[in-house]
Design a protein that fits this description.
The protein is built from 34 helices and 42 strands. With 1234 residues, it is an alpha/beta fold. Strand 20 (587-592) and strand 21 (595-600) form a beta hairpin. Residues 362-526 form the Amidohydrolase-related domain.
Length: 1234
């Protein structure tokens, strides 16, 4: 857990102990001859050394007689300890147990009938390759029999006749049933909520290296959050120490059942242990910022990451020393008898747990974000020979899968991730919502965690759902919070699946667990139902989600377009222009010069578009909505939350305007635009997160600077004051004094007629508040503080009425941000016409003034938003942190799905758009000629909705395309030249349709990156449509060529001769880098095809070696085709030239491409292979290389390197194709010229 995010230091650790490497040998060899005199000296020296060594060895042997001072009983205990030290734990069995070790006598058996069950693994007989691809997974309809704390049967229609008479029957009514959710990173119990100084036991900050402390010693079974977390279906958590230390201490796996109400016998941490036998131990370690911040100062380590590595290595060295001493003692006791020992077994409690880690008895979990930290820690594992179970947070692991695969022990660590929580500190600034998808595609395991209370673990399943949204396959997303963490905890045969022999930890859901707003109807832990009277939301039984493979297509920015036509639109939810079609009917929407020109058939416009260069986007279930507005966070005033240099700063004593602190055109704002958030309202922070002071500014998120036309649409939106616990500072040490100061300032503003000399002073703005010109926004959570604020409002209004003598009673425009306890005074808020922006939307009692928040079903009947809406309070969803900008639509979706019919889809979307302006009492800057809106494929309220375009009131619209593309075979004019070459030139080069035609074609594809060369080896391969957003015919393309297992085997052997470690893959489909060019090159499809991946390492030498292996196949008449895009593959530049952006930009890109092509061609066409590969090894030094192929994005250049290595000492040739005005090179070798 990160102190920046929670007010305390973070928690993460992992590492196992290694033996230090031996002394290095001298690099200088002794001469073989010596003068006789020196020779004699050497002989004498050697004899002396041998004598010393023998004496030293004898000195450590035990005495032959027992020592009178040693206890024989103690020595026998030590000998028994030797066996424990040598023991390597195994994962405890599940099937075969008579009862669960946690079973409580007297617990009645239960039969769950008529459930739709996710077993958690592929059906028996599915290959590991197929299972990873998602084959063999499905939901089944069955009953589940629970007895003795175990799942006894999972079968359809279990007969009651064979069951005990006292059995309890629970009807699932067809709802979906999974294993209980497992959170592999939590501080529940040690970081109890609400946060109070007396109950925070996350970090032991007396020393940087504390492997000897244990989280269980601070675990509070009465932490209310334990029950709240369980209400999200979480049955098991790994409770870790914090990450304030490089080595934080031991962790423990608990189950969320506490005391008799939960089916247990006592309230104790011991009774919560998931594995009472403690087969495995767990430890937390942490790299990076936190330990430096806590301990680093001049003269005290760790001051830097260099110092951290020393701290780790020194600790491992001490533990390794203890391991060696113990092993020596045990070996001597075995050899000579324990009674001969002259001392007791060496033991040191300080290093005991770390030495156990070196012995392989402890699963290490390490908090590590950045590449330098990851690389250093991987180095430690190899130096001291210990594995790592998982890297936590792991924001940059997706960039370096090859580094993870170098961890000692041969098992790459998992990455324990947030789905999209980033930007909160420097380490988290580089990250990607697609990290889980990328790691999975590289053969690694992502799991999703809460770091509770950083995220509310009640909703850790929502992290997995978002991972699915960002492209992680459905089965992998569900596994990431069930079977995957179970296996990583060493409990994979007991928890995480619904199978006989597994612990009866079960959740039944009111909707698909990966859908928006999914909540449990009931939860069982060890067979005991956890909620005696659960609240259940009224949701229609819709069945499981059909996994959408299109979600695997990541979206990429496209330059702004002035004109575009959208077809296939099902719903338009714009104010004044609402359209909802029935059945399969859809409408078209035409956008031109910043405005929507037509909604409907738009026949003329669509016909004109198709006959011109206007872009036509075919949507499936298209939705068009108002764009979203972010309010409550610091977006626009902050780049990295906890980096002072990127932040506007705190305002605990002064008064300032948000306008004066605006910093636009940064990463957070770019992401906001991409996810449909085109407007934001931000106020300076008072002291920290979700505190406000001064005046807020309204601005567009895509502006480059504040003076740009339309960038700022309201210089001063509202006046802000903070009345949370953070208000107790400076001149106002209490909440009452802060309330009193607000009352005094407002009454002063009422009383004075003097506007003052400074129109930007606080008094001047408060005058505008009491005059009704500006709203007053109060950041409050406590219901009591809200009541006090309502009294202030009434008092000031009375003063205004007394002064004005008007028949109309003047009203202050007051609204609230925060509102965790606002439901307790909902009717009073409605009566006072005070609106509420909930931030967080789903409060979870992190602070004392939020302790009475509603957590929702199954614990409470609704949440704050439901009560507020029922009372007539205008309500919106605010943001407590900037990273939530991606999630606004989904949060509105939760409100709609879990509102029991209170909200239509349009009204739910108003929560993140229109209602923000209603609450503030201001007019939304919106017009039909400059409209802000977003275009989605699917609903933005659903987990599968994908944003496709955004308009922010400008002449142009930002399109987000999912590339790659099938355009060459769909007749796109811009691909005409390359398509013609593929049809005419390449068949000649390959000698197709001649007696010399190749016996097979190996295609090296840029769209398949792996850690090792991977070869398609099946007889047949399906097509992998790795693109999205194109006409329907793009998904019905066929290329029925055969594969060739025998040639795949030949290729494998050739690669092995080059020192590579190739992998055969008989299942992966041919991606579009294979079938799109082959459809044009050889539509007959009568020559076998073998697909070969490139390497994620992007190492030139490895790709040259792949090429040399292929040269052997060329000799046996196998053609080699590299499918990439060597001349240009920066997606932004490609889109810029494809979509006809600024002519100057196009000209500049064309010039860069020409300069790059010249240097590249000079290298590629060198006749000698050695010269060619040497020149291409330095390709990153060519002009504009990073503009042409971005860092970590050179996969489209790698096929050329393979082909350059496959060509021997022979003449190369090239030809040009025009691509939207840019010169695109194709290189080839052979005896044919085209």
């Amino acid at each position: 857990m990160d102190s920046e995010k929670s007010g305390m230091l973070p928690p993460y650790s992992a590492a196992e102990l290694p033996t230090p490497s031996g002394p290095r040998r001298s690099s200088h060899h002794h001469k073989r001859w010596l003068r006789p005199r020196r020779s004699m000296k050497l002989v004498v020296g050697c004899l002396a050394f041998i004598a010393f060594a023998q004496w030293k060895q004898l000195s450590i042997l035990p005495s032959r007689g027992p020592s009178s001072s040693l206890s024989a009983e103690h020595l026998q205990q030590d000998l028994a300890t030797c066996a424990k030290l040598r023991h390597k734990p195994q994962d405890p069995i599940g099937l075969g147990r008579e009862k669960n070790a946690r079973y409580v006598d007297g617990q009645r058996p239960t039969l769950i009938r008529n459930a739709t069950i996710w077993v958690g693994e592929a059906v028996e007989g599915t290959s590991s390759e197929d299972a990873r691809a998602g084959k063999g997974y499905s939901w089944i309809t069955a009953d589940v029999l629970i007895d003795y704390g175990l799942i006894q049967k999972v079968e359809a229609d279990i007969s009651l006749s064979s069951l005990p008479k006292d059995i309890q029957i629970w009807d699932a009514k067809g709802r979906q049933l999974t294993s209980g959710i497992i959170d592999m990173h939590s501080h529940a119990g040690v970081g109890a909520l609400p946060e109070l100084n007396g109950n925070q036991d996350v970090n032991e900050l007396s020393d940087d290296i504390t492997p000897y402390v244990r989280s269980i010693d601070g675990l509070n079974p009465l932490d209310p959050q334990i029950q709240v977390i369980k209400s999200g279906g979480v049955t098991t958590s790994l409770v870790l120490p914090g990450s304030g230390n490089n080595i934080g201490g031991e962790a423990f796996v608990i189950k969320h059942a506490v005391g008799k109400p939960d089916g247990r016998t006592e309230f104790s941490a011991e009774d919560m242990l998931a594995d009472p036998d403690r087969n495995w131990r767990y430890m937390k370690m942490a790299c990076g910022e936190n330990a430096k911040r806590v301990y680093g100062k001049i003269g005290h380590s760790p001051f830097s990451r260099l110092g951290e590595s020393w701290e780790f290595r020194h600790a491992f060295e001490q533990a390794a020393k203890l391991v060696q001493e113990q092993d020596d003692w045990c070996a001597a006791a075995d050899k000579f008898g324990v009674e001969s020992q002259s001392s007791y077994l060496p033991q040191d409690l300080k290093w005991e747990s770390l030495s156990a880690a070196l012995r392989g008895q402890v699963h290490i979990n390490t908090h590590c974000y950045t590449i330098p930290d990851l690389e250093a820690f991987v180095d430690h594992t190899n130096e001291f020979k210990f594995p790592v179970r998982a890297f936590h947070h792991a924001h940059q692991t997706f960039l370096v899968p090859e580094i993870l695969k170098r961890v000692w022990g041969g098992r790459p660590p998992a990455s324990a991730l947030f789905a999209d929580n980033m930007y909160y500190k420097s380490e988290s600034y580089v990250g990607s919502e697609y990290a889980g998808k990328i790691l999975w595609e590289n053969g690694l395991t992502p799991v999703y965690v809460s770091d509770n209370p950083v995220l509310n673990a009640q909703h850790v399943l929502f992290e997995a759902a978002k991972a699915y949204r960002y492209g992680l396959p459905y089965h992998a997303a569900l596994s990431s919070v069930t079977s995957a963490p179970a296996e990583l905890l060493g409990l994979g045969q007991r928890i995480g699946k619904i199978k006989p022999g597994f612990d009866a930890d079960i959740a039944v859901w009111d909707s698909d667990p990966l859908s928006v707003g999914a909540a449990p109807a009931q939860v069982w832990i060890d067979g005991a139902a956890q909620f005696s009277d659960p609240f259940e939301l009224k949701k229609p039984l819709e069945g499981p989600i059909s996994p959408d493979p299109k979600l695997a297509n990541t979206t990429e920015d496209i330059i702004d377009l002035k004109e575009v036509v959208f077809t296939g639109v099902s719903n338009v939810w714009l104010s004044g222009e609402e359209v909802s079609t029935a059945n399969d009917e859809t409408v078209n929407v035409v956008f031109s010069n910043g405005a929507i020109k037509c909604i409907g058939a738009c026949a003329e416009e669509v016909a004109a578009a198709k006959s011109s260069s206007m872009k036509v986007i075919d949507l499936e279930n298209g939705h068009i909505t108002e764009s979203f507005t972010a309010f409550g966070s610091l977006i626009g005033l902050n780049g990295i939350d906890n980096e002072a240099d990127t932040d506007n700063g705190r305002n605990p004593t002064g008064f300032s305007r948000g306008l004066d602190g605006l910093v636009l055109d940064n990463k957070k704002l770019h992401v906001a635009k991409r996810y449909g958030v085109t407007k934001a309202i931000s106020a300076p922070k008072f002291t920290g997160g979700l505190t406000h002071s001064g005046t807020s500014v309204g601005f567009n998120t895509d502006a480059k600077h504040a003076l740009e036309k339309g960038a700022v649409w309201a210089e001063d939106v509202a006046v802000h004051r903070t009345l949370t616990l953070a208000a107790k500072t400076g001149d106002n040490p209490s909440i009452s004094s802060a309330i009193g100061a607000l009352r005094h300032a407002l009454l002063e503003a009422v009383a004075t007629n003097d506007t003052g000399s400074d129109p930007f002073s606080e008094s001047a703005y408060l005058k505008k508040v009491v005059n009704g010109k500006l709203p007053l926004v109060l950041t409050i959570h406590s219901a009591d503080a809200i009541v006090a604020a309502l009294r202030v409002k009434a008092t000031v209004e009375e003063a205004l009425a007394a002064k004005s003598h008007s028949s109309e009673s003047p009203k202050l425009r007051v609204s609230i941000i925060g509102g965790a306890e606002s439901h307790l005074v909902a009717s009073e808020l409605a009566a006072a016409s005070v609106g509420v922006l909930l931030a967080p939307f789903q409060s979870y009692s992190t602070t004392w003034d939020q302790r009475r928040s509603l957590t929702g079903a199954p614990l409470t009947n609704g949440t704050a938003i439901d009560t507020l809406i029922d009372a007539g309070v205008i309500t919106a969803i605010g943001l407590e942190e900037d990273w939530l900008i991606r999630d606004l639509g989904l949060l509105a979706g939760i409100a709609q799905k879990n509102g029991n019919g209170r909200l239509s889809e349009k009204k739910a979307l108003d929560l993140v758009s229109t209602n923000v302006y209603k609450i503030l009492g201001i007019e939304e800057s919106q017009s039909k000629s400059a409209r802000h809106f977003a275009v989605y494929e699917g609903s933005p309220l659903e987990i599968g909705g994908r944003i496709r375009a955004v308009s922010s009131g400008r002449d142009t619209m930002l399109l987000l395309f999912e590339l790659p593309s099938p355009l060459p075979v769909l007749g796109d004019p811009g691909h005409a030249a390359s398509a013609a070459s593929l049809k005419k030139r390449v068949p000649k080069i390959l000698k197709l349709n001649t007696p010399d035609a190749p016996r097979a074609i190996v295609v090296v594809t840029a769209h398949w990156s792996e850690g090792a060369p991977t070869i398609s080896s099946g007889d047949r391969h399906e097509l992998y449509y790795d693109y999205g957003g194109f006409p329907r015919e793009a998904y019905s393309l066929k290329y029925p060529a055969a594969g060739s297992p025998s040639i795949a085997q030949e290729l494998k052997q050739a690669l092995e001769k080059e020192g590579l470690s190739p992998v055969l893959n008989s299942r992966r489909g041919w991606d579009h880098g294979v079938f799109i060019p082959l459809l044009l090159i050889h539509p007959a499809a009568d020559i076998p095809v073998i697909q070969l991946s490139v390497l994620a390492s992007e190492d030139p030498d490895e790709h040259f070696r792949m090429g040399r292996a292929l040269s052997a196949l060329r000799d046996s008449n196998v053609a080699v085709v590299g499918s990439g895009f060597a001349s240009l593959h920066d997606m932004g530049k490609l889109r810029s030239i494809m979509l006809g952006g600024d002519p100057a930009t196009g000209k500049r890109i064309g010039k860069q491409v020409d300069e790059w092509n010249k240097e590249l061609t000079d290298a590629v066409l060198l006749e000698k292979r050695e010269d060619r590969t040497k020149a291409l090894s330095n390709w990153r030094k060519f002009s504009h290389s990073y503009e042409i192929h971005p860092r970590y994005g050179a996969e489209h250049f790698m096929p050329l390197l393979v082909c350059a290595g496959a060509a021997e000492d022979e003449v190369g040739r090239e030809y040009n194709d025009d691509f939207y005005g840019a010169n695109i090179k194709t290189y080839y070798w052979g005896d044919v010229r085209v």
